[in-house]
Amino acid sequence: MEFDPGLLANQVVWGVMVGISYSLLAMSFSLIFATSNTINFAIGEFAMLAAYLCFTALSKLPVGFVGAALVSMVGIAGFAMLLERIAFRRLYDLDPILILIGTIGVSSIVKNLVLIIWGPYSMSFPRYFPVEPVMLGPVLIIPQNVVVVSVGLVAMICFHLFMTRTRLGTAMRATAQNIRGATLVGINPRLCVNLSWGLGAMMAGIAGVMIAFTYNISVDMGGASGLKGFTSAILGGFGNLPASMAGGVVLGIVENASAEVFSHEYKDVVAFTVIVLILLFKPSGLFARSGGARRI
Amino acid sequence: MKALLCKLTAAVLLSVGLASTAAAQAQEPIRFGVSTAVSGDAASYGKPFLDAIQYVADEFNKTGGIMGRKVQVIYYDDRGVPDQGLQASKKLVFDDKVHVLQPGSTSGVILSSMPVGKDGKVAMWGYGLSKQWLVESEGAIFRSASPDQVMVSGLANFAHAQRKLRRVGILHIDNFYGESTRDLFKTSFEAAGDNAKVIAIATASDGTRDFSSQLLTLSRAKLDGLVIIVTGSNFGPAFRQARQFLGKDVVLMADTQMADPKTRAEIQELAVGAFYASSPMTPLNPDPVAQRWVGELRKKFGIYQEIMGRAVVGMTVMKEAIERAKSTDSVAIMKEVHKMRNFATPAGPFTYDPRDGEALKTGVVIEATGGSDPTKDKVVFTSRSSDPVYKERIDYTRIFGAGYREQLYKLHGVN
Amino acid sequence: MSGSSEVRAGPGPRARMLLHVGLIAALLLVPVLFHEHLFLLRLFVQMFLGATVLMGFLVILGFSKQFSLAQVAIYGIGAYIAANLTATLGVSFVPAMLISGLVAGLVGALIAIPGARFVGPWLALVTFAFAEIVRILMARLKPLTGGAVGFRNIPRPEIFGYRFTGEADYYYLFLAMALLAYFVTLRFRNSPQGRIALAIGDNPDIAASLGVNVFRHRIFAFFIGSMLAGFAGAAFAAYATYISPESFGLAHTIHYLTMLVVGGLESIPGALLAVIFFTFSHNQLMALHPWDLILDGFIILLFMNVMPRGLGGLASDLWHRRSGKRPEIKAEAAS
After folding, report:
1. What structural domains does chain B harbor?
2. Helix count (H) and strand count (E) of chain A?
3. What are the pLDDT digits (tens) for A274-286?
4. What is the value of pTM for the model shown?
5. Do A101 and C291 touch (CB under 8 A)?
């Protein structure tokens, strides 16, 4: 196979772009894990549901895209918080395996309900930006993707600022580090955990809308996205928000570079093998300290 | 005397018994068994297919059914999964005792379930696009759609002759359908001559919606055309990404998927300028039989999808065969199917070719001028074939007897 | 330590034996009494198949608490190996089944090796993705697997010269396999290795500090559970005579997880009850797909909130309450 550096550059750029959505999903996983010790396998489905909600809001309500996106963010956050309150709050003392199975059950419910409500056909958002490619040197840029990725980046920065600069964010971080300590200081851990689910769902929702723009809206998008997000979180450092953020981008790059260097069809297999190898040497993730301290 | 009385009573009882059985049989509905994907990825064509079948059955019942008996449709969801389809077909044939079986809406499912119909001696029909099952069918099943071969080679010839493409790429999913369609296109395209070549082929996993790496590679191959062979909900992303990465100078071509209104609603105006291969049963076909069914289906379901046409063809041909055979015996029914010549169906005249088992050898190429509305497209090319589509020949001996093949060949005037 | 792992709640050893003999005798008679009802026999076959896979899953996920989601994929590997052995290489059924089980067990052990060192999300991710990759490979490695269309024409079993023809033949084979799985799992649970595996599952750190070789025991549990999946896969291949990648996907994993939650992660009788119930209900609900998967999800959430130890836990609680005796005394009587 001849080596084409221009092509490799393209793959890397595309990988970074796609990686931003992985990062958001990874952050969602880590946030929920850090505060409630739950590995939430339904995050991919949250992302999917948000995309569907956005599409429906856009077509049924008299709002523009931004309005529809806001509606879907509120909707998905509300859904997640309700879910946590009703079905998961009592479970935190249980076997973690059971909780994990519970989230798998949730993912099945959400996916199949979406299938019943919206049907098996896939849909897409209207075209707001030009789709013709633009060449920046050897690198092919698609304007729509630039916009989508920028929005994702802004969202990530906003979340980070929320976590570090606001009282509520700080309270959530305290809860993640040490629940008892947080209670002593007057923080309501239940509220923080519940909010973390809502916030995590929102992050997943933004990723879902980004993915919907790049590909389309369909009932299967949750499975693949969830796996990518989960992989990114573990790759970066599970339970550690900044590490997970980085993990997403790394996964995007590894995935696409290996598609180029090895093969397209086995892209997922190769990427995954690379990650397993990395984790064998550094099991707590590339960017986290060993011992897996939680940091959000 | 006593003995005579006994015999008389027995005879009377026997004839009453026989008569009532016959009467019961006569009222007994004719059961059409269907295994199709109502959920799962394949549901986007499996469900409309089922809807159309039920609609046609209702229409039949409004005009007295078949041979005066009501038509009853019994179905199970096989999710497009072969072993589910196998279970479903077993249930239909052995538990529900259907008279007619449609063993699956995807080629994989049909392949696995067809033996059940053969063993259970039930007449079968289907549309799943795979030559494998026709060749192995021993005449027990007929296809209610145009064969891939004709549609795809039509597209290839159109690309070569009318659009003058010479450097084409193919993006396909790595399943049976993707690979056989790729091979069909490549063979026809390169055989047309003038140095036409399929320059680059990229494969994608079935089920993936990320074609970025494949398309980035293809974008550097200086193609003048790209054939996209991707099914289901992943077609939209494939198509859109193809436009994104290749720009408007590369002609995009696809298969029947593009006739589907839902798919077009998804890709919207990006579709303009693309071409696709299709069977004749689309709203663009001016034939009155086609127009009637298309109109009715659209009225009933709000939308017409090409897959529904395949249901109509299958059901109408089966009804005709049963009525000609005046029986629900599977061998008698299939014999009538084998003898059919120029039977009018919405997809054109149904003329069974005993050599390859195909009966609807017409394909069209359509230009997607309609954007998100496929009813505004234009038919730009029609290809018809009366040659055998495959080199293999169907062997009818086991089910229909020795010498049957020669009889059929003589009837149809082929050898 | 969870309450029921050391103590065998329920009737005494003699009553237990009678119960077993009675049930087995009843099961043996079913095809004789119901030989016309193919539908029923088919249901039982599915039940026995599910029970075998579930027993294996119970050992891995339930007893030794290893977050594996790979059971169905390993079951699939067993199926494809058996298909290749019997169809391509002409190996007879019983040796093929044994080989499939062995290879499946080894695959499981291989997964456990890196997995045993890490806890939590790591193994869940690895096994989940392993399952996906196995499915991709099943669809791609055409010469070995027949590709996405699947592997056709798998020969029916021939055991000691007797060639399988009807549903009843398969019934007895699957019954034998399910009984094997049951007794293996039972034996494992009551053996020293089993008790240690349970202890490790409960609290690996304490177990390790007591000098237990956590690593080795986890691998052994994984081996046993995967081997059972391999046997089941081989039997399935011979039954369906046609296998394809879609039979080994996430939906099946979800069905098994539901059964584990309902039965209880540490209870064998609970798991069996769950298999019986869900085989019948899934069959009936097949017509209502995808509502059956939604129902599975709701059942999982319901049981987790209301009955986290599942039916098995409920049964043992009821038994303790009924017998009035303290669990410690029962343990003395039982040993």
Report:
1. 28-146+284-352 (3.40.50.2300), 149-278 (3.40.50.2300)
2. 11, 2
3. 777 777 777 777 8
4. 0.84
5. no
